[in-house]
Amino acid sequence: MGVLTAERIKITSTKSPWWCTIAVIVLGLGLAAIVGFTSKLGLDSYKDELAQGNTPNFEPFIPSAFEAIGAGVGGFGVMVLMILAALTVTSEYRFGVIRTTFQAIPNRSSVLIAKALLVGVFGFVLSFILAIGALYLSRALAGDEAGALLSFDVDGTWRVIYGTAILAFLQIVVAVGVGALLRQSAGAIALLLLWPLVIESLFALFGSFGRAVQPFLPWMNAGYFLGQDGGVDFHWGPIGGLIYFIVFTAIVFGAALLVTNRRDA
């Protein structure tokens, strides 16, 4: 409890967590509002074309919970939380505070675990609340027709909501691990952003080899758990995708604990 208290004070006494929280709220709700508003505009345009006797050259966009929540809360919002989690480690290395921390708390593993738990639980709660808020906001702006799939009664909606929160927690733990392994803010942030956004997408360019590797990519499995397979032929179901990401998280964080205990601060 002393370690948790110390880490809580360090995290809450700086401004960056508060600014990151504001950014997550703005991104999560803002992108959900855009999804809802644009879907309504698209459906209205589609109806206008039909009313004028024209054949529309586009299909109306009817968003699901994944589009309303995944882009903002589960996408950019969680990335901001990952950056915050990585900075809780790398900032201490940058300013040399980590030496004082380890002198006060010789059990280095408990320091990393406390950081991951504090930011992870915060990210879980925030993501869960914002996911529900994003669904309501997107539905309100989309209207009854364009927002027909934005309902708790639609199959898969609840999985997107609680799944986004679970994955937020896991990705934050990964971010703490990456921060402890690299020790540098720029490198950790670059890796955490490029890995899910760019690196995993590049495998689609490698033909049969890329298609064979894609089912084993961690963020691909995270998206599969939320209901988006991305055209990848996975060897297991959505729950298997979650289990795969949990194992990946455990490996990264376990390696961070091992390395942190073995090398100099």
**Alpha-carbon distance between the two ends:** 23 Å
Q: Biggest β-sheet, characterized?
A: none
Number of strands: 0
Number of separate structural domains: 1
What is the percentage of strand-forming residues? under 5%
Low-confidence stretches: none
- The protein's oligomeric status is single chain
Helix content: over 70%
Overall residue-averaged pLDDT value: 89
Run of helices and strands: HHHHHHHHHHH
Q: Whole-number radius of gyration?
A: 21 Å
Structural class: mainly alpha
What does this structure look like?
- The protein is mostly helical and 265 residues long.
- It has one domain.
- Helices cover 78% and strands 0% of the residues.
- It contains 11 helices and no strands.
- The chain has helices at 2-12, 16-51, 65-70, 72-95, 97-104, 108-146, 157-182, 185-202, 207-213, 218-225, 238-262.
- Helix 1 packs across helix 6 and helix 4 (72-95) packs antiparallel against helix 6.
- The chain is globular and about 75 Å long.
- It starts with a helix and ends with a helix.
- The model has no long low-confidence stretch (mean pLDDT 89).
